[in-house]
UniProtKB/TrEMBL annotation, chain A:
It comes from Sulfurimonas hongkongensis. PANTHER family: DIMETHYLSULFOXIDE REDUCTASE CHAIN B, OXIDOREDUCTASE. PROSITE patterns: 4FE4S_FER_1, 4FE4S_FER_2. One of its GO terms (molecular function) is 4 iron, 4 sulfur cluster binding. The keyword Membrane applies. Pfam families: Fer4_7. InterPro entries: 4Fe4S_Fe-S-bd (IPR017896), 4Fe4S_Fe_S_CS (IPR017900), MauM_NapG (IPR004494), RnfB_subfamily (IPR050294). The keyword Transferase does not apply. Residues 56-88, 95-128, 142-178, 189-220 form the 4Fe-4S ferredoxin-type domain. The chain crosses the membrane at residues 21-42. CDD domains: DMSOR_beta_like. Keywords: 4Fe-4S, Electron transport, Iron, Iron-sulfur, Membrane, Metal-binding, Repeat, Transmembrane, Transmembrane helix, Transport. This is Quinol dehydrogenase.
TrEMBL record, chain B:
It comes from the Bacteria. Keywords: 4Fe-4S, Electron transport, Iron, Iron-sulfur, Membrane, Metal-binding, Repeat, Transmembrane, Transmembrane helix, Transport. This is Quinol dehydrogenase. Signal peptide: none annotated. Pfam families: Fer4_10, Fer4_5. The lineage of its organism: Bacteria, Pseudomonadati, Campylobacterota, Epsilonproteobacteria, Campylobacterales.
Amino acid sequence: MSENRPNIKKKRQPVSDRRKFILNMARGAGLAAMGGFIWSAYIDEVTASTLLLRPPGAIKEEDFLKTCIKCGLCVIACPYDTLMLAKPGDNKPLGTPYFIPRDIPCYMCPDIPCVPVCPTGALDEASVTTDGVLDINIAEMGLAVVDADSCIAFWGIQCDACYRACPILGEAITIEYEKNERTGKHAFMKPVVHSEACTGCGLCERACVTEKPAIFVLPRETAMGRAGDYYIKGWDKDDEKRLEDASEIKTTTEISNQSAMDSLNDAGDLY
Amino acid sequence: MATLWNNYRYLILRRATQVGLLVLYFGANAWGWTILMGNLSSSKVLGVIPLSDPYAALQMLAAGAVLAADLLIGVAILTLFYFLIGGRAFCSWVCPVNIITDSANFLRRRLDFDRVQGIKQPASRNIRYWVLALSLIISVVMGVTAFEFLSPISMVHRGIVFGLGFGWAAMLIIFLFDLFVLKNGWCGHICPLGGFYSILGKFSLIRVHHTQENCTLCMKCKVVCPERQVLHMIGKESLPVLMGECTNCARCIEVCDDDALGFSIRNTLKNKKTGE
């Protein structure tokens, strides 16, 4: 034991400044990388929330998250206290404005006070302006969706609460009449939402009489499908024009290598 | 009463400024005042003059956002103010977190924690610059304003103005961290906004000046200073405090019974090294 001691002492030579510097830098960089990954993971998590309804004029969510400075000027400007800033615990991108229509919907003020006050352009005035005048009717905050199974109008019970509540009634929501074969003498009065007119204000969701609203607003990106360019409305002259400059896309699969007749007769690997 | 004022005048003024700003912001949201609307990230004074956090704007730039004119004007106003005049005054005169960390530090002194833990701090004060660089890198990579999504400063301030949520937890964490883990932990070591203002305010005009002839080496200033490394000249040389980390909180001036410290306007013609 005692013989070893001098050896240990020998090993404990003072570390050179150069080595110390390099080690310290490496340590700093390593810690920064570790912190960076944790930080990035956290941000990825908190910005992943896609079911948020933003104020009118909000730019694309991805750009919104980098542009919104979280100042709350839109929240202050809103006369109905519709807008809120996400707080810790809301599980939404911290500090960004959103609204919950079932609590307080957007009342679609004609002068849209929340938009011009935005200092960063995260709420884009141009996107809610027609011919130089602010126009809340072209806002695209979201899209109302009807759950036909829980909507009592679809059951045959008379209710047009959402239709009546809609600020652009007759355009964003229409009522479709249909004979109720069960009773033989009543009509279904089914609400139908039209995506080209609906602004996603949520007044319908607020008005819905069911326990949990049967009509509710979702972000348009979530609520809407996309048919793609492959389908053309042959009965629509404008839509059919797309055919004029359409180019052929040839997809070659194992089946299409054969002639059409053969591939129909021989199902190949399908069964 | 006079001694009370003499010993705490800057502390009282600072708290009045911090709380006053909070009241104005809160009033704008709650009662429709128009004196100061928004929050510390971006505000409007009297509905006209924009003010915007330059560090937040820097992150937006890094994230690839298009910066609007209003924002740039707001950033320019604050940047010029802190660059030319205020220095790192934001941290001690405006930021609400300062009240929390100062309380933790006060309790630390009262409970004599430093003697128990030893004077040497286990963490470098340069961490803030690493965090600052990291926040910009993450902003570039993730395309979001990285620090703004976890900033306890914004959480606390926004919380007080717009509703706190679990923001109180953020306050408590910082308080406990500063009290039990690291002295001046958040503001003096980690906060990248503090780091940002340390760099920005390095050349500002308002400075604390030390007069060596009056100093009796009581070291009260060093005990109370949240960035004690900036007071390296105490008792040695008559120098202004030139390091950017000084928050101009002026606690050192108040606790000095010997008139050895006071505010001065930096004389840019003077030799920076010797103060002559």
